Amino acid sequence: MYYPEEIVEEVRARNNIVDVISEHVRLQKKGSTYFGLCPFHNEKTPSFSVSPSKQMFYCFGCGAGGNVYSFLMQYENATFAEAIKMLADRAGIKLPEVELTPEMKKAAGEKATLLEINKEAAKYFYYALRNPAGKIGYEYFKGRELSDETMKAWGLGYSNMYADDLVKFLRTKGYSDEMIVKSGLASHDEKRGTHDKFWNRVMFPIQDVGHRVIGFGGRVMGEGEPKYLNSPETPIFDKSRNLYGLNYARSSKKNHMILCEGYMDVIAMHQAGFNEAVASLGTAFTSGQASILKRFTDNVILSYDSDGAGTKAALRAIGILRENGMSGKVLDLKPYKDPDEFIKNMGAEAFNERIGNARNSFYFEVDVASREFDLSDPDSKTKFHREIATKLCQFADDVERNNYLEGICREYSINPESMRKLVGTVVNQTGLATPIRPKPKSGEAKLIKPEEGIIRAQRLLITWLSEEPGIYDRIKEYISEADFTEELMNKVASRVIAGIKEGNLTPASIVSDFMDDEDQKQVAAMFNAKITGLDGIPLEAGSKMDREHALKEIVLKVKENSYNYYSKNLSNDVAALDEVIKGKKQLEKLRNTTFTVD
């Protein structure tokens, strides 16, 4: 839902961030800032700061940060629309009906209609399960030991034997064949006309995090292919960006999520008290789904089938989780195939024990790899050790790699020094691992890639401007929004400079411009960093000469990059040509200029 900027800002301004966060986190005032234990990661020493002047929070431990909206979205696992409503209600503000453009109205109207159709279909399937014709579906669920309460909570249903009943029902509700087909609930061809996609199947409504039905999964009763059929992609249903059961699991207070393969696994686990379970939607686990999970946790436990296909899927999921900066563990379900079967036979307590003993994902990968080798044969055993060395190369950090090396050597009775030498050999032969450069000694310059230096300079200048707006008058002859060539930096710098010119720079309102979690973290970090030079060394307020030198160095770096950027992108762009001509003159003058700072 879109709200005008002035409404978003009014709601934010009427909710003091210290008061809001104090309702969830115990804060203690230290100077002008409040500190507490971060609610987003485990810590014993408070590194979570809340600034009343900036109306922002920032954790120096895990990097979480943002304004009052960001906090509620992360803490309550809420969408922006949900967060603004909570804060508006808290402040006694009535949110307005939003004016939409014709294009927005058309898109919103179509999505609203598709959501209505799915909701009506869910009700239709729900009641069909409880009618005499749905007895086969009801008995199936009872045979899977689901209670009536569970069936109701998940809205389980049945699509009967006739292939046009749902279409006829939806027509009586006033929906056109075009929209029924677009919803994914029906197909159309010349021979049969518009007809149901799902028939003779038990039905699993798929809901988004707001509990809206966006699609369906159906399991055939008796013989038939495919065994499971899912709604196709629609304007409201993107399989790669949703997870089954997340609308319930998002409220779990566990510090992990359990990722399963199927709908029944998720439902059975929730019924047994494991409300942190979710599943991918009839497709392989995707990077998009990993990004969604990362909003709620960094720890994922894989509870895939214990057969070959499940093992293969788990290995693939481990790689995706690792790419997204998440840690994964794997449940051992043997001697049973899946979590549903395990819980039925062993019970919830035994399943909880398996969760506590979930296998580290790296160890799991090595375990699986070991099955390919005959460890009683010296040649095969050597190949296995080389396979371990190759896998260890995925850890670029020396400390992390060494910890895993020592652990896996204990597991398989391998000499650690021999394995270190083998890892070194593999690195030299393949270049798989990215060596970590040692930290520079005192007085030694740290090696920084050119592009990293450019981003750092632009980020540092934004930090200086937000902390000391007065310096803008001293550098405005040389620096403008156009000099911030990195996309994120440009957006932030534009707002910062505009705020300084208007005399109302408010970092917390700038954060509201960014919906992406990672962007918010980066922006929050800019507004909560210490003033430093390009070398990253903090500058004391009293070191006037050092501060003046550092500021000039940063401004010069930003300007030189800007000049080079527009020179490369000159082509026939008149605006770029103007920037190049202006930039060259400014650079010449800038090199002979000294800035004064307080």
The CATH class assignment of the largest domain is Mainly Alpha
What percent strand? Answer: 5-15%
The count of domains is 5
Q: How does CATH name the architecture of the largest domain?
A: Orthogonal Bundle
Helix count from the secondary structure assignment: 26
**Unreliable stretches covering 5 or more consecutive residues:** 434-448
Shape: globular
Overall number of strands: 16
At the fold tier of CATH, the topology name of the largest domain is DNAb Helicase, Chain A
Characterize the structure shown.
By secondary structure, the protein is of the alpha+beta class. It has 5 domains: 5-91, Zinc finger, CHC2-typedomain (DNA Primase, Chain A); 107-237, DNA primase, catalytic core, N-terminal domain (DNA primase DNAg catalytic core, N-terminal domain); 241-366, Dna Topoisomerase Vi A Subunit, Chain: A, domain 2 (3-Layer(aba) Sandwich); 372-430, no CATH class; 450-590, DNAb Helicase, Chain A. Helix content is 50%, strand content 11%. The chain is built from 26 helices and 16 strands. The strands form 4 sheets. The protein has a 5-stranded antiparallel sheet with strand order 1-2-3-4-5, with helices on both faces. The chain has a 5-stranded mixed sheet with strand order 13-12-14-15-16, with helices on both faces. Strands 6-9-10-11 form a 4-stranded antiparallel sheet, with helices on both faces. Strand 14, helix 13 (308-323) and strand 15 form a beta-alpha-beta unit. Helix 3 (68-75) crosses helix 4. The longest helix is centred in the N-terminal third of the chain and has 28 residues, at 102-129. Residues 434-448 have low confidence and may be disordered.
